[in-house]
Amino acid sequence: MNVHAIVIELLGRLLGLGRTQAIENWQATFAAPWARHSPVWLLFGCLALVAVAAVFYLRYQPSRRGRPRLVLAVFRAVVLCLLLLLLAEPILSITLTSRKRPALWLLVDGTDSMAIQDELPTADRAAAAEAVGLAAEDPPATAAGAPPATAAGAAPAGSASVKPESAQPSRIDYVKALLAKDGGSNGSLLGRLGEKFRLQAFLFDNPQGVRSLELAPGGTGLDGRHLAGQLTTQGKVTAIGAALGDLGRRYATGNLGGLIVLSDFCQNTGPPAVEAAKRLGVPVYTVGVGATTAVDVAAEVQAPVYVQKDERATVEVTLRQQGLDGQTVHVRLDAEPLGGLQGTPGAQVALGRKDVPLTAAVQTVEFPYVPDKAGRFELVAEVDPVPGEVVRENNRAQREITVLDDFLRLLYIEYEPTWEWRFIKEVFYRDKLVGLKGFRTFLHSSDPRVRKTNELFLPSMAGSRADFFAHDVIFVGDMPASALSPRFCELTKEFVRDFGGGLVVLAGPRFGVGQLAETPLGELLPVKIEAGAGPDDRRPFNLRLTAMAEAYEFMQLGTSRRETEQAWANLGELPWFQPVRRVHPQAVVLAEHPTRTCVDGKQKQPLIAVRPYGRGEVIYLGFDETWRLRRLHGEKYYRQFWGQMIQRLALNHALGSQKRFVVQTDRRHYQPDEPVIVSVEAYNADFVPLTENDLPNHKLQGELWLPAGQGESQHGVERLTLTQTRKGVFETRFTVFTPGEHRIRVTDPISKNPVEWTFQVTGTPVERQRAVRNVALQQELAASTGGRSFELKNAWDLVDQLQPAAKTETTVEVLSLASTWLSFVLVAGLLLGEWLIRKWENLA
Question: Do residues 800 and 418 lie in contact, with contact meaning Cβ atoms separated by under 8 Å?
Fold first, then answer.
């Protein structure tokens, strides 16, 4: 390397620019306005200061020799001129080419699952402890990341402390020890990585993103113990995808060399992690923390959303196990009454007990259930803990069901009998949740005398408000606009928007959905239509499912994807469909035409689409030929399609007459210290929203019954006051602290009857639902981005695997010369030299 290159690199290091290769350009100027705008004054000032220095030394400083006085005058003139130049704030702009070290991100999992204390095999535990520097006989590291001093058995220098064998280290303990470990002559992990990269550390402990961590006190240098002391396990969910997305948005850099993730990779919420990692565009190196195998058994419970009182139903409990082949576990299934639907909370009911031999990783146990009471129930499945289980929170599972002593109420509006109308009527006549009393129709072409004498038919499409809003789902078939009364349209709109009702609109070949374009119903549709647009029957076609159909249960007609496709293929060729202009922005298309498109030429014509409207949901069918599903299989798929659709539409709202006064919370399950929002939707007998002026003291009064007698009063009951937030809606908020069942009771001011709602406060976090590390996600994150996956025992191999590819960058550096060490050295050196010469000449 020649002298020129050495000088350039030295300058770059002094400026903190990494390996400087060349100086392309430089320019000096002044920042002070007076010097920048009038540099001639700077020249005059320097000349004046030179004159002052010359006069001072050459005339007023006696000396036998003239040469020292001349030298002193030069020294003093240079110092004065330099000070004047510094007052002008000189700056130097340098354009240079340098090779900067790439950045490296360190992302640590800070969620509750990292606090799990794994029961590792002895060999694995010893290898991990050796790799991270844990001493098995010492207590765990303090919060600050430093081990406490002990009289005996102290950890050797450079190692972090760990829990004794009776209390195994948690996953985060291993991470802290790895970061805090001093490798002696090899240096620390952070130090060795810091030689190659510019490090940044982050912790993800909430689903919104990451938070930055300090690498050392004051933000300068690298201190593994300081970094370890900032690690916590407060996160309630693991959202790796959200964390990676946040990194890409907030900390993006063009010179990123890689990302290291230390986690158990048990993602349970947020966007897919692999896709987010790919968008970063850099290799991801994963370090897995936590056991890969464990003794564990978990329970899941599946049951119908609605069941009929005194009718037999089947509840399935799915057991997932590891390391327990050949053992027998005890399974319990209970029903806890939650009240509602004229039911009241009561004692837990035992539904079944079984001893189950574990013969497979996943197996299902069936329990018969014949409910003898109506209301809302929570089915609770529990598996007794087995020896060696580390995570026992997943031994319990819950699912809420509704037992109906009433029936679902369906209203079908049609102009004249069609095949679809006939078969839907027959299906729901035999449905246990609907039956003879639940299905009603208004058939415009029917004889008025039939409407009066046959209870199946309604005399008008829109009766009283109380009767109309008692329905759960409304069907609108092939109707001309002239036959739809304005009152029916407005009531239907209110039914869906305000009461969460379900609406199904079926296009017909006679009039077409275009008839609805200029009615209030047109605003509810998932599609935009032209007024008077009729059906298109030019060419038969086969319906095609979209990718979104898999997310909707009523579209899944089989137990597998293949069976579902075969079931829909059973429709055969459809002879016509209803064309539309476009799809509503809030709509989801579930089935479409294979070739025909909307006006934009891109979106295929929708045949089945769904859209939320207000609190309810609207489903659109661009044909009324689903009865063709019966062609080869009878009612099997036809009943499944319509039955599951009705259950979906009736799922998220109160049923029947219960819509008039509804008490509920924003969730059914809470963690301690979480806020609860209680809302009451209140209407009078005609379903007109109640206001504060209709109530005594202008507020609703209620009670909160706490579990196990907790609370201010001896009976564990606290008063609630609900205030109006808008017409017909009253709310209150409070925070829960005690685990257990909480019961809310609010008295209906119209019927004077109490209405109850219950919710659970539980300490069972979602983070404890999985006992082992998600190795598949760990490896996929690395493989899909060109990185590598590591175990704790070989985590130090990261240093060798990560080879930085420094990028050449051209930068413009602006230096303030007044604040540099060079200026200080020049001024101090000149003053010191002047003083020494004066001493030598006896002038001091």
Answer: no
Helix, coil or strand: residue 821: helix
d(CA 811, CA 801): 29
> 394-399 long-range contacts, Cβ below 8 Å, gap at least 24?
394/296, 394/298, 394/299, 394/768, 394/769, 394/770, 394/771, 395/297, 395/298, 395/299, 396/299, 396/764, 397/298, 397/299, 397/300, 397/301, 397/317, 398/301, 398/669, 398/760, 399/301, 399/302, 399/303
> Which tokens is 359 given?
């013969």
| Pick from 342, 341, 314, 311: nearest CA to 430 | 311
Q: How far apart are CA 210 and CA 245, in angstroms?
A: 9
Distances (CA, A) of 516 to 4, 469, 474, 519, 619: 83, 21, 15, 5, 15
| 333-346 pLDDT, tens digit each | 999 887 554 444 55
Where do we find the tokens 């001129």?
A: 81
For residue 638, give the nearest of 625, 654, 656, 619 by alpha carbon. Answer: 625
The bridge status of strand 209-213 relative to strand 198-206 is: antiparallel
Give the residues across from 29 on adjacent strands: 91
Chain-centroid distance of CA 844 in Å reads 76
What is the arithmetic mean of pLDDT over 365-392?
87
Asked if 262 and 268 count as a contact pair (C-beta separation under 8 A), the reply is no
Main-chain dihedrals φ then ψ at residue 616, nearest 5 degrees: -110, -165
In this prediction the pTM is 0.61
**Torsion angle of the four alpha carbons 396, 400, 402, 408, in this order, in degrees rounded to the nearest 10:** -140
Q: What share of the chain is helix, strand, coil (3-state, %, to 5)?
A: 30, 30, 35
Tokens 């029947």 locate to 656
> Mapped to the 3 state alphabet, what secondary structure does 7-55 carry?
HHHHHHHHCCCCEEEEEEEEEEEECCHHHHHCHHHHHHHHHHHHHHHHH
Extended beta strands in 295-408, E state: 296-302, 306-308, 313-322, 328-339, 349-357, 362-369, 375-383, 396-404
Question: What is the rounded distance in angstroms from the CA atom of residue 380 to the CA atom of residue 398?
Answer: 5
Count of residues in the chain = 844
In angstroms, the first-to-last Cα distance of the chain is 47
User: Quick one: tokens of 247?
Assistant: 């990194």
pLDDT digits (tens, 9 = 90+) for 224-278: 999 999 999 988 889 999 999 999 888 877 678 899 999 999 998 888 999 999 9
| 109-125 per-residue burial string, b: 16 or more CB within 10 A, e: under 16 | bbbbbbbbebebeeebb
Q: Cβ(461)–Cβ(669) under 8 Å?
A: no
The DSSP symbol for 693 reads: G
Task: Give the chain's largest Cα–Cα span.
Answer: 141
Domains in the chain, start-ordered, CATH in brackets? 3-100+810-840 (no CATH), 103-293+772-801 (3.40.50), 296-404 (2.60.40.10), 410-653 (3.40.50.880), 657-761 (2.60.40.1930)
3-state secondary structure of 346: coil
Q: Identify the weakest region by mean pLDDT among 93-107, 250-264, 326-340, 742-756.
A: 93-107
Q: What single letter denotes the amino acid at residue 367?
A: F
Amino acid, single-letter form, for residue 844: A
Q: State whether residue 152 is helix, strand or coil.
A: coil
Cα–Cα distances (Å) from 562 to 565, 569, 686, in that order, read: 5, 11, 49
> Which band of pLDDT confidence, cut at 50, 70 and 90, is reported for residue 546?
very high
Show the DSSP H helices in 444-485 as ranges. Answer: 448-453, 465-469
